[in-house]
From TrEMBL:
Organism ancestry: Eukaryota, Viridiplantae, Streptophyta, Embryophyta, Tracheophyta
Protein name: Transducin/WD40 repeat-like superfamily protein
Gene3D superfamilies reported for this sequence: YVTN repeat-like/Quinoprotein amine dehydrogenase
Superkingdom, taxonomy of origin: Eukaryota
Organism: Zea mays (Maize)
Length: 381
């Protein structure tokens, strides 16, 4: 019997100005065009972070801003800040879905440091030094641009570098993904679906290429505790009905050290990892499967956690026994995967274009085709 429960602290909704992002297209099924970050800096002052595990609804919330960098169906990106208010009273509607309150957009601007020549497919954020964020964007041809964004100041014109695709962008464009190593921020991976490749870079230097058997749809560096030496050497990739594990230090078998095959005909659309090294996957089977890479076996399987295909997953930072599940039915669910129990859920107003969880805390953001952004803040009881 578990001793902790994860509950929603607030759910808010903000609208993107149409002049900033007009007529976004769904792009691909994977909602990878949004990245979120919680900043404690507002109006030039520093606010101490809240302890998500000890806060109660009666305590005055610290002012915070949700920093988001969503990329629309265009070759440029945008950035805006949204004020989070944990004092808002939550209400529930049909099927116990949370009802959002309106949120305040503090500022919005165009990020002109990522001028791609085709539609941006994925965006990722990593925390850097000196109050900076590292922003990675990749377009449908695999062109990678990495920029540095200032968290506090409005000036976002920082150093950046660009890495063209290995084949110079020849051929047909498709979904492409990008992710940073959690332990080595200079290391970034770029996946290209139609090319069946994953390229590993150390800044703008190409390290190696991984060749997948099927079309990659999601990938993530496998995280471990800091005291383990293998922290950033493993990469989990969803390709077709298989979950493949790659060791960047190995050359045998192209670096692939293990393959886990799901049901024939079921496609895995999303995978993620927890700080302890657990790997989650989900897709057309509408179930979340948790794997332990140390034993290459399934620990648990949460069946029926989504009514339709699963295209987004993220472990809770407060308690990794909980996981966030995003489905194509506009719904995002938080639940306990060991007990297969739902904690709370909410629904967007149109197709998801972006789904992102902030690092090191449980703030979840979803960007809809309508231009609405839904932000949920969870805490532990």
């Amino acid at each position: 019997m578990r001793s902790t429960v994860l509950v929603a602290r607030s759910l808010q909704k903000a609208s993107v100005p149409p002049a900033l992002l007009s007529d976004p297209t769904p792009g691909s099924l994977q909602p990878t065009r949004l990245a979120a970050h919680v900043s404690m800096h507002l109006s030039g002052r520093h606010c101490p972070p809240r302890n998500l595990s000890t806060d109660t609804s009666s305590m005055a919330p610290a002012p915070r801003a949700l920093f988001t960098s969503p990329l629309a169906a265009a070759s440029t990106g945008s950035r805006w800040k949204i004020r989070l208010d944990a004092s808002v009273m939550l209400s529930k509607g049909k099927e116990s879905l949370l009802i959002p309150d309106n949120a305040q957009v503090i500022s919005s601007s165009v990020v002109d440091r990522c001028p791609h020549r085709s539609e941006i497919q994925s965006v990722a954020l990593a925390e850097g030094e000196d109050d900076c964020l590292i922003l990675g964007t990749v377009d449908s041809y695999g062109h990678l641009i990495v920029s540095r964004l200032d968290i506090v100041a409005d000036d976002i014109d920082r150093t950046s570098y660009s890495v063209p695709p290995r084949d110079c962008g020849v051929g047909e464009g498709s979904w492409a993904g990008v992710c940073f190593s959690p332990m080595q921020q200079s290391m970034v991976a770029v996946a290209r679906q139609l090319c069946k490749t994953i390229d590993i870079y150390d800044q703008d230097i190409h390290v190696r290429s991984l060749r997948t058997l099927w079309y990659p749809s999601s990938f993530s560096f496998v995280q471990y505790s800091p005291h383990v030496n293998e922290s950033s050497s493993l990469l989990a990739t969803a390709e077709g009905s298989q979950l493949s594990i790659w060791d960047l230090r190995m050359n045998n078998n192209g670096g692939c050290v293990h393959r886990i095959t799901g049901s024939v005909g079921d496609i895995i659309y999303s995978t993620c990892s927890s700080p302890s090294g657990l790997i989650a996957s989900g897709g057309t089977d509408r179930a979340v499967t948790i794997y332990d890479p140390r034993r290459w076996s399934a620990l648990s399987r949460w069946v029926g956690c989504s009514k339709f295909e699963i295209t987004g997953l993220a472990f809770s930072s407060v308690d990794e026994s909980f996981i966030y599940v995003q489905g194509v039915d506009y719904e995002i669910t938080c639940g306990h995967w060991k007990q297969s129990e739902r904690a709370f859920s909410f629904r967007g107003d149109s197709n998801w274009l972006g789904f992102s969880k902030c690092a090191n805390n449980d703030v979840i953001a979803g960007w809809c085709e309508s231009g609405s952004i839904f932000i949920a803040d969870a805490r532990q009881l």
